[in-house]
Amino acid sequence: MKKIFLLLVLPALLICSCQKNPGPLPGPKPINLDQKSLELLQTSNDFAFDIFKEIVSNEENENNLMISPLSISLALAMTYNGADGDTKEAFEKVLHLNGLSVEEINQSYQKLVSALLSVDPKVIMEIANSIWYRDDFYVENDFLNINKNYYDAEVTDLDFTDPASVDVINNWVSDKTHEKIDKIIEKIDPENVMFLINAVYFKGIWKYQFNKNDTKDEPFYNQNGDLLNNVKMMSFKEKISYASNDLFQAVELPYGQGNFTMIVLLPKYHVSLDNLVSEMNSANWETWMESFSNETEVNVYLPKFKVEYKKELIPDLAQLGMGIAFSDFADFTKINKNGGLYISSVKHKTFIEVDEEGTEAAAVTSVTVSFTSAGGGGDVSIEFRADHPFIYVIREKYTGAIIFMGKIAEPETES
């Protein structure tokens, strides 16, 4: 009888032992990019902080927001291939592209996108580009071929006078974002001749997941210390990367095998969110990232949140120095040699939902081209409690590429 009991119990003990000791989790996979691609990454992050700061400065403090610098950059990069003269120089200034040739820029974006799509099989990362132009409008073949070859852009001519064309474009957007963003275009005006659209979709499962049973209703405060409301606060205790300085506490929460991570910057109580944002630039960011200490035991408290955001980016891009592209003086003769074109809209929409399992996020950027009027703490456990406004950044660890970045002033989740 004892033998039978042991035969029954031993396998169960072995199963429990295996479950408790899964062995080391896989780590991030190195990405090796050439020098020009690394230079482009640096300039892309410069632009990311510029546009983020500009948008935050123009939003109400209590508003949540999120942008995808990668999506904006890719949509503008496709459009850049149609610019010339002073307009081309304005793109280069705002996107920090000076010093790189057009071919180097296109090749570097191609290599970066390829690396991001293939680095982690445990994370869904999808990037899609498309160009839609009026069927009676002539587009230079070189412009279309460059965007096909380097950005894998789907190119389609449509009858813009047909109301169904709006649905065709929006259905593409919905499909590429897994229905998280259902449309980017409301209507097609008579002077519109082209839409250049980028879509980014991301779905990552936390490497260290939060237990749903540990999620509790807890208070969330504004930056003045006043109670806003109760939120669904997730929590776990784990050895993760942690940083702290006079401005903030920060944790790095990895997805999948660890290439993609969410950096959460929680301002110290004497630091306003605006002050923290004002300090965000490439030099400081690099210093901050280097300050993370690995394997620090941290009690993490992070609210579940869901954000849907939309923004017309022309005012922000104009403030950064791209105003000529939105005026009658724009030069897009590489799209059509007769000229008379300008950018009439740069629409940006984003979605993010963060819960115990991970993160799902999407972004779409649409550039509309139209005729102008003329034509560490060792073994000490640290508490990280995100119970007041914070910044988050989703990036790829090895390249440093910033995919999404946002501000949470008041978490909003589905009931």
General description of the model:
This protein is of the alpha+beta class. It folds into two domains: 35-204 and 306-371, Antithrombin, subunit I, domain 2 (Antithrombin, Chain I, domain 2, 2-Layer Sandwich), CATH 3.30.497.10; 207-304 and 378-408, Alpha-1-antitrypsin, domain 1 (Roll), CATH 2.30.39.10. It is 31% helix and 33% strand. It is built from ten helices and 15 strands. The protein has helices at residues 2-20, 35-57, 69-80, 85-94, 102-118, 141-151, 164-176, 273-278, 282-290, 314-322; strands spanning 65-67, 123-134, 154-158, 192-205, 216-221, 227-244, 248-254, 260-267, 293-303, 305-312, 341-354, 358-371, 382-385, 390-396, 402-408. Strands 1, 5, 6, 7, 8, 9, 13, 14 and 15 form a nine-stranded mixed beta sheet that branches. Strand 2, helix 6 (141-151) and strand 3 (154-158) form a beta-alpha-beta unit. Helix 4 (85-94) packs across helix 10. The longest helix is centred in the first third of the chain and has 23 residues, at 35-57. The radius of gyration is 24 Å and the shape is globular. The model is unreliable at 1-23 (pLDDT under 50).
Q: What can be said about this structure in brief?
A:
The chain is of the alpha+beta class.
